[in-house]
Write a structure and sequence with these properties.
285 residues; alpha+beta; nine-stranded antiparallel beta sheet; 7 helices; 9 strands; elongated
């Protein structure tokens, strides 16, 4: 990797779990002096730890919080906290989260970096907590998808549960999610696009079948004729639900905000027309 790897916490874990005696890394070396490679950390080291844990469990010496072998994926909301036991692992798949350590360290196994104190977690990185770690991982975004392996205690917040709302909308076929292979396929951590919002809006009206059956022409050059989006956009344009982004563009991939979505609703209810009331006042109207 060409990068210095500091694994003091991992070394302590090896001592405690494998019974290898005292071990410490003291020489700093330079960028060419890689003490432990990533392949060793993810292969030989973790395999040895897992094997030793199994042996301890077999002899009755494991605690009730023994780590499960499989990764567990869960959706969380803002303010939810996870408290890992020593040796537990975590991956942030979507959203944002932060770890606070009062003791021990957490290792980013992809970069081979050891951190303590306050750590902003990066997406799709595998984090390994040292055996002596005392840590709390908090969700800092509205939602997050986190995968864990090992023993974790959880403390759930009282914040708005957008995950539950999405599940409820999916149950009544107003929200279908995406093709994302994790987090129930919800993709709640991504800002909705104009096309996604329009599709949701048409489903709320109960007019999706009519939209999918629509054929005709539209002036928007950025919506491919015959595509799935073309049916929704063409139907909405014909019904007066949307006037597009400009005379010739719809901007289907552009992020939409709450006032813009509210304007969709107002137009469908007949309370506004283009040019009469700006989108900026949609929420108050």
């Amino acid at each position: 990797m060409g990068r210095r790897i500091l694994l003091r916490a991992a070394a302590c874990a090896a001592c405690l779990v494998l019974g290898a005696g005292a071990l410490a890394f003291t020489a700093r070396g330079d960028d060419s002096d890689v003490l432990i490679s990533r392949s060793y950390l993810e292969g030989t080291f973790l395999s040895a730890v897992t094997k030793r844990i199994s042996e301890i469990k077999g002899s009755g010496g494991a605690s009730d919080a023994a780590a499960p072998a499989a990764w567990v994926e869960t959706r969380y909301k803002f303010g939810d906290r996870l408290m890992p036991s020593g040796g537990a692992e975590l991956m942030l798949l979507a959203g944002s989260a932060r770890a606070e350590l009062t003791q021990g360290a957490v290792i980013d196994t992809a970069a081979g970096l050891e951190s303590s104190g306050s750590v902003t977690l990066l997406s799709n990185r595998r984090y390994l907590f040292s055996e002596d770690a005392r840590a709390s991982v908090s969700v800092t975004g509205k939602t997050a998808v986190i995968e864990t392996r090992g023993a974790f205690d959880t403390a759930l917040s009282t914040a708005v549960d957008y995950n539950a709302i999405a599940s409820a909308l999916k149950a009544v076929h107003l929200f279908k999610g995406s093709l994302t292979g994790f987090g129930s396929g919800y993709d709640l951590e991504k800002a909705p696009t104009r096309l996604q919002a329009l599709i949701m809006f048409i489903r709320v009206l109960g007019e999706e079948e009519a939209a999918l059956a629509w054929t005709g022409s539209i002036p928007f050059t950025d919506v491919a004729a015959g595509s799935l989006g073309w049916h929704y956009v063409g139907y909405a344009y014909e019904r007066g639900y949307t006037n597009g982004y400009s005379a010739t563009t719809f901007m289907p991939g552009l992020t939409i905000n709450a006032p813009q979505y509210t304007e969709f609703l107002l137009r469908a209810l007949g309370y506004s027309r283009a040019g009469e009331a700006p989108v900026a006042t949609a929420l108050t109207r």
